[in-house]
Amino acid sequence: MAVESACAKIILFGEHAVVYGQPALAVPLAQLRARARVESRAGAGIVIHAPDVGQVIDLERAAGDEPLAAIVRLTLEALGEQRSLEVTVESDIPPASGLGSGAAVATAIVRALATHLRKRLTAEQVSALVFETEKLHHGTPSGVDNSVIAWEQPLRFVRRDGALELTPLRIARSFWLVIAHTGIPGLTRETVRDVRRAWERDRMAQEAIFARIGSIVDEAQYALESGENARLGGLMTRNQVELEELGVSSPEIRTLLATGLQAGAAGGKLSGGGRGGNVIFFAEPEQVEPVRDALERAGAAQVLATRVALS
Ligand code: PMV
Question: Which of 25, 102, 111, 258 could potentially form a cystine with 12 if both were Cys, beta carbons 3.0 to 4.6 Å apart?
Fold first, then answer.
């Protein structure tokens, strides 16, 4: 039997502009995880259990685009193995909220299968397998979720001619993030489409926004790498102003942002696709609890406080 896990991820800075060639920064959330257990099965075939969502999947009969079945099939194919197995997955990561829940579950499955079958896979191989199933979830995934999660490392990423350039992001001093869910699923596909329409209408204006986001990302990277964490809150709030300008915010996001800032967070922004999903705050350690309490009182669907550690 083998048990393995994988972390969640969150975009700190740069979403949307990253689609147009600007850099973005994402970090793993080590405390929020998906887990997979793989064990041998007496009967024939492979059965996948996902009790969180009340699913039991018989691999033989599962559709080709069923993501859990697909990652098991792909991994066994890559490992050159065919066995009778029982796979069980569970996850603390809220789905459809920009935290990479699908990629984390898939990563945990790949790792547990490899461990159970006594094979070794590099982070790059894990990431590539998970990317294949990300296509089933998202159509045209960016590759960020599988990369940050497989390496479990903060990354700066730039998309150039369809390819993702990844560079490790060094975090000099750990910091706290408070993450509040609006209760509305993140609408990445819709907001990405709307930003594209606006760009097609007025490229100059939109590209000016993307460029401003790009410089905020560069400043944030410098602050993270030099331990100037006090600047991060202000940079988040500046990034949010630009996301508002892009039209990917929403009244629910604005309400949570106002609540967190009033409770003492140093800054905040939406994270991911927008119009729903999560809002993130940078908070000094002593502000984390008051910010969390205020967000819960204001009706956030879920509030997480997590320390982003040194890398
Ligand atoms: O919602 P998430 O965390 O999967 O992030 C979406 C990020 C976007 O920049 C809006 C889209 C993309 O493909 O990069």
Answer: 25
Instruction: Identify whether the C-beta of residue 221 lies closer than 8 Å to the C-beta of residue 156.
Output: yes
- In angstroms, the CA 91 to CA 30 distance is 13
Low-confidence residues in the chain, pLDDT < 70: 139, 311
The span from the CA of 306 to the CA of 204, in Å, is 38
pLDDT of residue 71: 97
What is the pLDDT at residue 311?
A: 62
Distance 116 CA to ligand 1 centre (A): 33
Ligand 1, closest atom to CA 191? 10
Phi, psi of 41 (to 5 degrees): -125, 140
Quickly count: other Cβ atoms within 10 Å of residue 14's Cβ: 26
Check pocket membership of 15 for ligand 1, CB cut-off 6 A.
yes
The whole-model pTM stands at 0.92
